[in-house]
Amino acid sequence: MKIRIHEIEMGSQDLLYTSAFFKLLGLPPAIEQDGLTVFSSGQPGMDLNVSKHMPQGITQLSFITDDLKSMMEQLTVQSILFEGPYESHLGMLSIRLVSPDGIPIVINTPTDSSPAWLQV
Questions:
Q1: CATH 3.20.20.70: does it fit domain 3-118?
Q2: What is the pTM of this model?
Q3: Which of 6, 78, 88, 93 has its Cβ near the most Cβ atoms within 10 Å?
Q4: Which segment of 18-27, 39-48, 60-69, 101-110 scores lowest on mean pLDDT?
């Protein structure tokens, strides 16, 4: 089973102000749309997102795996609770869980309808 970090998403109340901050740091925006700015992190396949999808101050880590079923089995054996799987953006299937420190985590797997660049 392969897994890699996909994105770090931070909730923002003032998307324009927060996006301007990261632009000042030198991060180029790859996507700017209503409620979301995606920055190139400098690492291929990993994004830094600022969005209104989550409350201000909340940071969520997202991973991509090539075997979500095995991941769910592993979490179940370890008695780690998760929600899903559910259909997510970009044609992915996802599960949601929380780290021991309370950090929201999403683990995704691409499907046949996902873009080629998401394949693990």
A1: no
A2: 0.85
A3: 6
A4: 39-48
